[in-house]
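WARN no homologs supplied; continuing
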Amino acid sequence: MSGSDISKLSSDIVDGKVSLFELIGSAKDGDYRSYVENFRLVNVVLNNPGVAEALLIELQERIASQNTDRSDKNSIAKQLARKDGTRRFEKLMVQRTEAFRGTPSLLSGSDFDTCLAQYLDLISHVERLWASAAQEYKLKNFPIAAFLSILVIEEIGKLGRLPQDLINYDVPRKPGVLTTVDRDHRRKHFIGVVSGALINSRLDRILGINAVRKLLHEAESDEFEKTRQACLYIDVKDGSPITPGDQIDEERARVLVVLAGELMAEVLGHFPWEFQRMLGAVMEFETEIGFSDDKIAQR
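OK structure emitted
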């Protein structure tokens, strides 16, 4: 788009003739290139202070139209307050910076199509991993289901930068190639869980706020790593051998599989059609294992 076209678009947005939300969402389902180009275009026009102000006004109008109850308007603040959210959000920003600092893009392609193919392969891997966790749960292989769910959470923590890498597919890369990714399990647990559970009323409704608070605590400590080890290895407790099945019961596996699925959709569902596909699979599983329609319905 030429400079004059961008100026015209910016003017139309400021005058209320064009909606930024409609611009972002104008790409057809499945059209990754159009969605990425629209997002890049929005980033350009937001350099205009008038456009940024128009976006804020439109956002406030949308919130006002969707929330009629004052308690709804304060729901985000309430979720944060109940989950030590301010501190954990600040820590999340630090952890993400430490995990991604100095590492090249996860996408190494020389053009958009190659980068998109890599992106889709990485996302598909996580979806298949979660589907395996759900299947193992239904087969009553609870330790393996829990183990695979924790792997999903780790991969979510690892791939948090992926959408930005795709959007910046043509940005010149620094010399060198990607040789490793973050291998700090505890940090990946924290990034994966906090990114998707800190503000998530759906997860609060399905698992319960107290369960979510406990999971956030576990992600910040070493409990997820302890659980991961317990899923795989025979150990000794009180002088007697214990198997993974003795340590990981159905309830523990159920919570972890649901958590991993919900985080997958929330954090890795970068594009609308991806989110709906992932959430659809998770909701189908939740229905199969007995959650009520009232709990799992989209709202």
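The CA atoms of residues 234 and 243 lie 5 Å apart.
OK
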